[in-house]
Amino acid sequence: MSIYSFPVLKMTGIIQFIRDSKLSISEEDIKNCDPAAVRRFFEAFFEVILDISKDDLTQPALSGLSALQHPNLHESSVPELAFFRTSKKLLEACGVDDFTWRDIQKPTLKRLRYLLSAIINFSKFKEERKVHFDQYLKTTVPSPSHVLRSLTYLDTLQDNLLRTKQQVEDENVALRRQLEELQSKQAAEAPALQVVIDECAAMEVDIGVLNTRQSVLQPEVKALKAQVAQLNDDIVPITFIRMN
To answer: The Kinetochore protein Nuf2 N-terminal domain covers which part of the protein (predicted)?
Structure first.
């Protein structure tokens, strides 16, 4: 049973792939379902698909033997178990989830074609993805010369920013000094300013008093103006009579 579908290759396609991959497996080995040839095929793709080398495969097995009470009795079974587990992991990665011991020890030609097709299809798919990914990196990852130019530009930009920052800080210090001088001058002139303010306040009081007096005297002034006008009117006839 497969997790996802893939085409089962013809024998000619499988043999051609084996030749192109330069694996030490003959066409007769495949047709005869030779277990040793099957093992060599699986081992060749442990590293291609799972990134597990043959040395990596044997290391856990050897370390596991030391934990057993009679390690000499398990010198063959422990490595076999490690090989089976890795093979099962390999086939699961390729979309096969029903891998068993029989697929290693006594595979049928039909079953072997199915398993090899799964591995071959997945390895080709992975290689194609790798090519696309490498092309993507070439188009997106900048070249060393571009990185160097960018770093040079950033260094120049940083220097300019540092100079600008220093200028701003110097101007800030100068402005603070001017502000302190103005504040000191203002503090020194504060008493004289207060005297002027007090004098202005006193003058405002005097002006208020004068305005009050003016408002009181205004009716009298108006009455006097009326009397003067009346006297002027009285004087005109008298002057006219004398002239005649």
So the answer is: 4-138
Residue with tokens 């587990």: 85
- Sequence length of the chain is 244
CA distance readout (Å), 179 to 14, 175, 190:
88, 6, 16
Tell me which amino acid residue 198 is.
D
Q: Which helix (H) or strand (E) holds 240?
A: helix 144-243
Q: What is the rounded CA–CA span in Å between residue 123 and residue 90?
A: 11
Residue 23 burial (CB count, 10 A): 16
pLDDT tens for 131-146 read 777 777 677 766 667 6
Dig out the tokens for 168 from the structure: 């701003």
Domain over 11-141 is classified CATH 1.10.418.60: yes
Q: Where are the domains of the chain?
A: 11-141, 145-234
Per-residue pLDDT tens over the stretch 93-102: 999 999 999 9
- Are residues 107 and 35 in contact, defined by beta-carbon separation less than 8 angstroms? yes
Tokens representing 74 are: 């398990």
> What's the gap between Cα 122 and its chain centre?
34
Helix (H) or strand (E) holding 97: none
CA 22 to CA 113: how far, in whole Å? 18
Alpha-carbon gap, residue 114 to 33, rounded angstroms: 12
Q: Record the tokens describing residue 70, joined without a space.
A: 């009679």
> Residue 78 corresponds to which tokens in the numbers above?
């422990």
